[in-house]
Amino acid sequence: MEGSEGINIGRAVDEKLSIVDVAGIKVGNFTDARRPTGCTVVLCEGGAVAGVDVRGAAPGTRETELLNPINTVQQVHAVVLAGGSSFGLDSASGVVRYLEEHGIGFPMGTVRVPIVPAAILFDLGIGDAKIRPDAEAGYKAATLASSARPEEGNVGAGAGATVGKLFGMQRAMKGGLGTAAIKLDSITVGAIVAVNCIGDVLDSTTGKVISGARTKDGKRLLNAMAAILAGESPTALEGTATTLGVVAVDAAMTKDQATKVAQMAHDGLARTINPVHTGFDGDTIFALATGKSSKRTNVTLAGALAAEAISRAVIRAVRAARGLPGLPSADEIR
């Protein structure tokens, strides 16, 4: 597909690229295999202008109000995505501790205060709900953060993620963590997503369901929306979902521009998850602009690429996921 400037978008997509290919971004995962659950830390130690857009009706977040463009602080130093429902917000405290130890934060006199927004997803229905990410988990994830391509699937915030819960957990499948990026001559846009949705996950290029609710015998994909339209009643469980994401761009942006990019990035969820942004989800996407390319960019272009990166990351998340007992993966069910 040729853009107005003759850019071939297809050639800009490299399956080896990930969010860490955006200059100034590192990612670390902590996975607690006992349940499983975990957290994912996106570090921007040099600071990044940030925005956020919360679309789900059941969010669990920290420091998102600070990202409102009218508020004072302009940059953040990390974003945390975690399992464990509201308990998982504790993991951000560990990242704050790590950053303080490294002298990173917003200068307040003699103190530097790390700014670390966070969002959580519900995975307490998997294994022992007493096991959830805490401050120590966040600290460990921060110590592991690097510019190496992040692992995908059953790791970090995606460790306990599930998808396709419109007809109950007994017919759901395994979700996970995925990442993708798009690199053009003037801009690199990356995304990382923990996919833990009520709805089915679709391949955005074909419209085909690739993971989600299963038939009653558990052997095949159902296509939840087709089943609903045919008269089958859903039995979705309240508070069992939420898909979380971070998009990052190496261009310079203002807070209101980053917020617009976060808003547009949700289009990537709408292309790949059906239904999405429901009363049971806390779907949240953060946007980070590191400014490392020293270029400003067209916000519409950045937002469009962010949506595409999110879409690709969602698909990678479920395809990389490995099945758990009673929760098969995408490569086990057709």
Describe the protein's architecture and organization.
With 334 residues, this protein is α+β, with helices and mostly antiparallel strands. The chain has a single domain, classed as L-amino peptidase D-ALA esterase/amidase (4-Layer Sandwich). Helices cover 21% and strands 25% of the residues. The chain is built from six helices and 16 strands. The strands form four sheets. Strands 1, 2, 3, 4, 7, 10, 11, 14 and 16 form a nine-stranded mixed beta sheet that branches. Strands 13-12-15 form a three-stranded antiparallel beta sheet. A hairpin with a 6-residue loop joins strand 12 and strand 13. The longest helix is centred in the C-terminal third of the chain and has 22 residues. 59% of the residues are buried. The N terminus is likely disordered.
In a few lines, what is going on in this structure?
The chain has six helices and 16 strands.
Shape descriptor reads globular
CATH structural fold name = L-amino peptidase D-ALA esterase/amidase
**Taking all residues together, what is the mean pLDDT?**
93
CATH superfamily: L-amino peptidase D-ALA esterase/amidase
Provide the structure class.
alpha+beta
The biggest sheet, with number of strands, parallel, antiparallel or mixed sense and barrel status, is: 9 strands, mixed
